[in-house]
Amino acid sequence: xxxxxxxxxxxxxxxxxxxxxxxETSAQRVEWMLSGHQGAERYRSGMAPLLDxxxxxxxxxxxxxxxxxxxxxxxxxxxxxxxILTRTRALARLDGVDSVQVILxxxxxxxxxCDGREIDGGPGAIRMLDxxxxxxxxxxxxxxxxxxxxxxxxxxATGGRDxxxxxxxxxxxIARLLVAHLEGLARAAPELTPNExxxxxxxxxxxxxxxxxxxxxxDPAQHGPVEGRLFAIARRYIDAQxxxxxxxxxxxxxxxxxxxRTLYRLFDGKHGVAGYIQQRRLDRAFSAIAQHAPxxxxxAEIAYAHGFxxxxxxxxxxxxxxxxxxxxxxxxxxxxxxxxxxAGQSEVDKLLSWLRGL
Length: 358
Description:
Helices cover 42% and strands 20% of the residues. It has helices at residues 16-19, 36-47, 89-94, 151-158, 173-188, 194-213, 225-240, 249-256, 260-266, 272-290, 299-305, 311-322, 326-332, 347-356, and strands at residues 28-35, 52-54, 62-69, 73-80, 83-87, 100-107, 110-114, 117-121, 126-130, 135-139, 142-149, 167-168.
C-alpha cells in the first residue's frame, strides 16, 4: 500500500482532531509528505517491504498519504505522482501483509496485470487487490482512497470469491454506495470512536462484498457461501499442520468431514489439495530462508523440515513458485528492505504493522 503528495494538505476541511490535541476517541493516524529526488529515494526504500517501485525519470516526484486505523480495516487518502508498483510473489510471502485492498480512483488512471488478470480504469473506478498475490500496476499522477480489509472478514462475506484484479466502473447502484461510503469514511475517520470505526469498516466490507457478489462472468470454479466457509476452515487447518508429515488430502477431508469429491471441488483452480499444501509449505520455507530461522539450518534441512524428501525436488518447486533459487532468498532477506524514518519516526513501519495485524 502506497499513499502520498506535494507538501500541501489533503483535500477536505480540517477536523477538530487535526487542529486540536488528539482526543481519547480519535483514530490512530499516519501521515507523510515526500517530494523531489531525495523524497523519491526515501519512498522507494520505505515501501520496499511491500512493493518494488519504479519512477519516471522525467517526473517531479511527490507523494502524500494520510491514513487511519479502524480496527478491522485501514483507510488512507493518497495524492501521488506517476509510478510503477510491482508486488512479486516473493514479497507477498515475506512481508506478512495478507489483506485485500479496495481502491477508489478519484483522479488519474491505472493499468496493469493482477496475477494474469489485465486491468485498467480511471476516475470513479473501484479496483480490488489481493495483497497475498502478485501484481504490477502503472499509475498516472492522481488521487485515490484505499481501504485495506482483513481477508478473513471479506472471504466470509463473499464465500471466498476471487476479487484480485476486479475493476468496477462507477455505474451500478451498489458501486455508487461504496464510492459515497469510502469518501465519507476518509473524511470522518479522525473523529470516529473505536466502536464507530469498527462499524464503519464493517459497513465498507459489506458493501464491497455486495459489489463482488453482483459481478457476473466470474470464474465458474468460484465457491458459494457454504463452500467458501469450508475452504476457509481447510486453509486454517492446513496452515496449522504444515509441519506434520501426516498432512495429506485424506487428512484434510477427514477434518472437514466431507467426501473426496467435495474436497477436490473446494480446491478446484488451486492446483488441487496436494498442490495447495505444497505451495503453502514453499511459502513458509521462503520465510524461513529469508529470515535465517533457525540461523544454522542448511537449505537441505529447511527442505526436509517443510515436507520435501530431496533438495533437488525442493529447489525445482521453489524456483517454479518464486522464480528464484532457494539460495537467492537468503540475500533477499538482507537487501535492506526496511522502512525509512519520516519526521523522526517510521510512519511507514507503523502502517505496515497495521496491515500485518488485519
